[in-house]
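Troubleshooting entry. The earlier prediction with PMV gave an output that would not parse, so I re-checked the input for stray whitespace and re-submitted. Clean input:
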Amino acid sequence: MPAFTATAPGKIILFGEHAVVYGQPAIAVPVNQVQARATVTPNLWGAPGEVVIQAPEIGLMAVLDELGADDPLGAAVRGVMGALQVPRIPACTLKVSATIPFASGMGSGAAVSVAMIRALAGFLGQPIDDGTVCALAFEVEKIHHGTPSGIDNSVVTYRVPVFFQKGLPLETFSIGKAFTLVIGDTGVRSPTRETVAAVRARWQADPAGYERLFAAIGSITRTARDAIRGGYPTRLGPLMDENHALLQMMGVSSEELDNLVRGAKSAGAWGAKLSGGGCGGNMVASCDPQRALEVQGALEKAGAVRTILTQVGARPDDDPTGGQPGDLGPQL
Ligand code: PMV
């Protein structure tokens, strides 16, 4: 049984985070500059069924049987075993790593799950379709997030821009004109589970007010999809600004995020907003490609610990195989 490697991209939410948990649409795009990677290697001398899981970045080195039901990595492996009806995996080591910042709104949890699921299915020599990968990763997202909408596992599995609405078939859409995004990381780790729970508590305290906020965000998201499809990316700017203001009202921005948003705007970005769970993590700005380096510099000056430049719709950024033996996966 040969070793098998699979990768999965990070993602950034352009519009609709939090509101998407309450049934509104959201738009997310893959970010191929950052990746999660999983490699399964056979252990010729291991006991049958012994799966060693290594995730050096989080200091994890364990045998599958030692991991409880609430461990996301263990849950991903058990999910594959259940879906593929493999009661016992040949002895192997599953090594996971990621260049996606952890707990920062870039989908690191979903990407790790998707890479692990694909690598394990490949190692077992069993085909696994995208729908199954996405559904298995969603189960792991519940451990990470509590009540996930499903957007992270969807965009990371399919590696295309998505218009996502809970309970409806996943929609992708064409990009009328390529556009540039600059992503800035506050360096403040902020688990999505906590921000989602905080918004839920505020929604419970003021359901009517929060439903209005969510609906306003939903309407921005639909307008943004039309602008992207129609080839008018400059129109995204004001929509991002409005979406950020609504997220501020929901209490999920932070001083660090607001500083980066202001920095991007002062350098000429069309618009900017926090992305993902908020209260830390990443923000995203859209801008003219000619200004991207200035925006990037402004973000660094405003305190970003890392910036990523990415283009949406510039060229196909998908690898439909989702990984091959020894494949490093798609890179932009
Ligand atoms: O923080 P992230 O990248 O995992 O994004 C979370 C997005 C939310 O809408 C806040 C939660 C969700 O499950 O959709």
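This one parsed fine. The chain has two domains: 4-171, 175-312.
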